[in-house]
Amino acid sequence: MGWVADTLHSVTSIQLRELFNHFISLGLIVTSALVIWKVLICVSGCQSPVVVVISASMEPGFGRGDILFLHTSKDPIRAGDIVVYNIDGKDIPIVHRVIEVRERQNTEEAYILTKGDNNPSDDRVMYNPGQKWLQEHHIMGRAVGFLPYVGWVTIIMTDIPVLKYILIGALGLLVLTMKE
Fold it and tell me: Signal peptide location in the record (predicted)?
């Protein structure tokens, strides 16, 4: 009987050790992702260095599902720049092209007007009531690069939230069942 108890004890301790190693591996994966995100924030100067295009307003240049990489710069914003901006009180950032910039007299502040390349008119209808221009504090960053189609994963998980939980569960199960 002592032989069986010793065998069960050693199997249980080996399984616990493997389970602990799997949780450590999962923690390292999550930590690595957070470190990469923080490095992107430091390099780009943006609080949100990566955004997903969720509409067709910038086609054909950027399509729905493209991922844009943003950067902030001390250089003044000029017509033709593609910027990501956020309107006060609205949660979703917008990716559009700057079509006009007006410098304010006696200050370094500028008024900025934007438009989606695929839209018939400027963005004033999207700004807050009474707002005719964006100011530099609305601009989150300028697009400096993109990956086509990769953002579809985010769009699908936003449209069908249960997929997010299925994916997280599957990844967790994979980490717990993987053999070294």
Answer: none
